[in-house]
Amino acid sequence: MLRKLKLFWWNHWIKIVVVAWVVFIFWIPVAALKSIDSYQRSYMVAWLSTMGLQATISAVIFVVLYSWVLQGGLQKLKKRQVKSEGVNVHWKDVIGMEGAKMEAKELVELIKDRARIKKIGGHIIRGMLMMGPPGCGKTYLAKAIATEAGIPFISMSGSEFVEVFVGVGASRVRQLFQKARRLAYADGGCIIFIDEIDAVGRKRVFSAFGGTEETNSTQNQLLAEMDGLKDRDENVIVIGATNAAEDTLDEALLRPGRFDRKIFVDRPDLEEREALFQYYLSKIKYDPSIDVARFARKAVRKSPADIANITKEAALIATRSKDDRVNSDHLAEAMERIDLGLKKNRKVSEKEMHITAYHETGHVIVTYLLHPTDDVFKASIIPRGPAGGVTYSLPKEDEMFRNRDWFIAQICVLIAGYVAEKMKFGVTSSGVSNDFQHAMRLAHYMVWSLGMGKSESLGDYTSIPADQLSGSVKDKLNAETHEVIQSCMKEVEGLLRKENVIFERFAQELIKKQELDYDDIEAIFKEYGKSNPRVTSKYVPKSGPTAG
Amino acid sequence: MSLNPVRPLADKIRLRLFSGFLLGLVFLSGCGPQYTYPAQTVVQSIKDISLKEYQIAIQARVVGKTAGAIFYVEDMMDDQGQIRREIHEKMGQVMQAVTRVALSTDKPLDYAIVIARDRKNLNELAVVRSIDDTKRASADMIGIEESINRTIFRQGKYRPVKGRSNVFALKEITLPHFLAEQIVQRIRFGAVRETQAGTEDNIEDKLLLVDGVYDVADGSRIFRFSTFSMRSETPGHSILEILKIASAVLKGYQFVEYDQIQIHDYLNRQKLALDRETVSHYQAKRVTEKDLLERFLTESQSIQEAFKLFGFEAPENVPDAQ
């Protein structure tokens, strides 16, 4: 018996001590109250009850307020629920993303044919992840899916799950899915759209000390909810959208069963841009003589949102100009304003103006005569932003790969401003610094990473830590980089000397007119018997302005 | 479906039992004997507490709803003729004992009185307190100053009865008498304060004597306050000040068991008699003081009658004040 008691004590001594302590703590007020007069005891009990009531009321108020603060996002969640008929974006409104649209259409068919899929033993798609650059219409596509599927649509941003309070994110995920399941139960399905899902979908971080980040628990809850380990398998489809690269997202989120489909919503191509211009222009009054194809070409790498913005800006410019419809000039000005910024009314000295004019002329001539893809759309010596002048060139079309010729031509264009200044004035200005930075970076990239140096040293040497590269290798690569720049300079020098007449003519024209457009530039070259080697249509394309 | 860890049933039951036990303890703390001092032990309890806790031997009695205690001292005056400090302290301690018992007994007690008697000089000090006022004070419903104002302090001589010097004769205190005494005390204290403050042009500066009773002799319930004030151009003013105090006290106790308030200013031969309804209107500020004076201020009795009221023998040839 004694042994059993000892064993019991060994096994439960902590519990016994805790219980004894708790009883003792409770006994103190009991004993104290019993020892005082009945009136005082009643008074104390009444006072304690009042205090207890006060504390309870305070606690309730605190809890309500605290919950209100914590649940603030959920209030927004309620407002986020959108009925499909309220969204009212149809397939015909989705322009400039044909590939993504096809995938989305398929998803809608699968949502609608859920019963048929289940009948043949298939599994309904649980999620679709839309990736791509910002402004390419991911949210718009999601709205179209909601409209066409005819089911409720709940839209949230990933950042809405992120709070300073621990557990709030996970709680909001639970609430969101609970709401979605109820809607799905009532309406046959529900779409949850989580914009910027990378806010909660980043690769999870696990601490060596056992702690995890708050977003981990939010994401874990999201994963658990998407797994559908629930009583009923409701038709809830999660559509995520992100600008982040796929490899920044957590692998668990991307596996089949969660986001089964991945759609890359890319920037529109030429045809899609044209369609987008048509679409957005159709929403405003515009001059039908606008060459939409020309603007579509000029809008290389622009997203649908950019194109929408251009047309809106053009409408504003037309309004300010007191015109009753948008014309080509308004559109061109809108594009320039968005791409190049507003013109500055800065007073420029005669000397500075001349330097800038010759500098930009260097860019123009080399781009026109040497560049394999880019055409000059505008040359200007009116200050914009920090730049004294600008040469605005665009490629014919966005290209996936660039060869050595492109890099050499690009470097030539960049250093042409320096060469022009040196040729004309014998000295150069600080205006070349930005050009040199870009040129050096490109030359370095060619030699160190792409094997495009003279000796064609294969390999990406930047992937090796600098301290593991021998001095001789570094010297050799740096020498080759230098050689690329030098050879480009010689080439540009030769070209500008050869075309000195055109060079002078352009510079003077620029000083006279301040700005030359594509047609002006084309006309001058034509005057000297030079034709654009890249022209295939009325208008040509980008790469970004070369600041002078 | 999310899986919650399942607590074994035995654990749940144990937890509930333990929680129940703790709650039981809390509830039990409010139990125990309903009254600490049952009715039949009140007198003895007062004596025991005084003796045990304050080492003061007292006599105690209960008459009606009044509990009283008395203790004797040889000489309560010091060399300067002031009441010694320890007498005040003892009275306070005995009052503590009486009120403690009065508060925690099932015997209905409304007043506590503590008397200290000086055998040498035959002086007597008494403190009277309402038990309800004690409750109000402990619950902070009234402040310290108001609590003191509601306590009656009596002082005077006592006449020992030969052979029965230790007999404690206690008269029951009733609310109207308690209120009448309290009102008079407030008027006197006010007069003393104002005199000490040196305030001029105030009625209390002119107040010579004041007394008051709750009189039911004629079948009517009358609060009668009699004053001797200095001759004044505006005698109604001093009467109004007394009315204000009486009205505030009656209102504070929500006392309405009376028919009339009479205030006599004998030197000025002025009398204000208000029935309860008029006082009620005055308390509710439905009637102005000016109206009261115009409507209810009348000529008072002669000074001879007044002397009689105050227990003096006035010579027959003293002319009435005009």
User: What structural class results from the helix and strand content of chain A?
Assistant: alpha/beta
Kindly report the CATH topology of the largest domain in chain A: Methane Monooxygenase Hydroxylase, Chain G, domain 1
| Mean of pLDDT of chain B | 83
CATH architecture of the largest domain in chain A: Up-down Bundle
Helix content of chain A: 55-70%
Shape of chain B: globular
Radius of gyration of chain A: 34 Å
Number of domains of chain B: 2
Number of strands of chain B: 10
Sheet with the most strands of chain A? 6 strands, mixed
Task: Please identify the structural class of chain B as seen in this structure.
Answer: alpha+beta
Q: What is the C-level CATH assignment of the largest domain in chain A?
A: Mainly Alpha
Question: What number of structural domains do the residues of chain A give?
Answer: 3
- Extract low-pLDDT stretches of chain B: 1-6, 318-322
Report the largest inter-chain contact: A-B, 20 and 21 residues
Order of helices and strands of chain B, N to C? HHEEHEEHHEHHEEHEEHHEH
Taken as a percent bin, the fraction of beta residues of chain A is 5-15%
Largest sheet of chain B: 5 strands, mixed
Number of helices of chain A: 21
Number of strands of chain A: 10
Terminal-residue CA separation of chain A: 98 Å
Write a brief structural summary.
Chain A is an alpha/beta fold and 548 residues long. Chain A contains 21 helices and 10 strands.
Topology:
The complex is a heterodimer of chains A (548) and B (322).
Chain A: H1 2-34, H2 38-70, H3 72-80, E1 81-82, H4 84-87, H5 98-112, H6 114-119, E2 127-131, H7 138-149, E3 153-157, H8 168-187, E4 190-195, H9 198-201, H10 214-227, E5 236-242, H11 251-254, E6 261-264, H12 270-282, H13 292-298, H14 304-320, H15 328-340, H16 350-370, E7 374-380, E8 390-395, H17 404-425, H18 433-448, H19 471-498, H20 500-513, E9 515-517, H21 518-527, E10 546-547
Parallel strand pairs in A: 2-5, 2-6, 3-4, 4-5
Antiparallel strand pairs in A: 1-3, 7-8, 7-9, 8-10
Chain B: H1 9-29, H2 42-54, E1 59-63, E2 66-73, H3 85-103, E3 111-118, E4 123-130, H4 131-138, H5 144-149, E5 152-157, H6 175-197, H7 203-206, E6 207-215, E7 222-229, H8 235-252, E8 260-265, E9 270-275, H9 276-283, H10 289-296, E10 297-299, H11 303-309
Parallel strand pairs in B: 2-3, 7-8
Antiparallel strand pairs in B: 1-2, 3-4, 4-5, 6-7, 8-9, 9-10
Helix pairs in contact in B: 2-3, 6-8
